[in-house]
């Protein structure tokens, strides 16, 4: 590549990694979110024209910012190798849909709402949270399946025993599961479910407390533990890739130990080879005295 191109590419790369530039981008994203929220109030209808100008300015800024990030890459294909870059590209290009067309105004406004998600791509901590949440979904699925089994068992028991209390709460297993969901979320469960049930079944509190203990304490903490475990692994992986943090130090120590072991193995092999190649020294024999004939 030519020298001027490399110079401009280096400048764009420096600008992209500049903390002030990242802060400005985050501030513009927040401003964009505020303008979207402002359009939902009737009081700001008199400023509709100014909001439109502001939306155009924000869209142009995002487009320029995207072009700067693309120009900062030595090879344009490297830009599209990262999923977050593809996400930003789709969001920004979708924002170019004009809002003047009455048929497209709803779609354009909906797409502009998703520009708030660019905060996730700009802030590493939010990316870590989102990635950890996505990767923990398969493991949480088994916990959710176990929760469903417990819900189903308790709903079946409740519909058999408490159906005489209130048909709207315990009439069938589907209604019973909805009632138990209300209990699990603690949404007026005592006054709407517990007390009316205990009027006919005084020992019903055992049923409800065991259900709450299983779902609100055990299963919920299991899900939280899964997310925290995945977050810890992702954070360690990021530290390892960046060469910082405790994980990177541990990996460095492991590499040093492997290098020392390799050196010791080579030294041991060299000593064994030297010992095998060394000629055996003949032991000097004692001369026998001549016999006189």
UniProtKB/TrEMBL annotation:
Which GO molecular function annotations are given, in alphabetical order? voltage-gated sodium channel activity
The coiled-coil segments of this chain are: 250-277
Keywords of this protein's UniProt record, alphabetized? Coiled coil, Membrane, Transmembrane, Transmembrane helix
Q: Where does it reside?
A: Membrane
Question: Gene3D superfamilies, from UniProt?
Answer: 1.10.287.70, Voltage-gated potassium channels. Chain C (1.20.120.350)
Primary location group: membrane
User: Does the record bear Chloroplast in its keywords?
Assistant: no
Q: Where is the Ion transport domain?
A: 19-235
Question: What membrane topology term does the record carry?
Answer: Multi-pass membrane protein
Transmembrane ranges? 20-38, 50-72, 140-162, 169-192, 204-228
Name this protein carries in UniProt: Ion transport domain-containing protein
PANTHER family registered for this protein in UniProt: SODIUM CHANNEL PROTEIN 60E, VOLTAGE-GATED CATION CHANNEL CALCIUM AND SODIUM
Q: Name one GO cellular component term.
A: voltage-gated sodium channel complex
What species was this sequence derived from? Vreelandella aquamarina
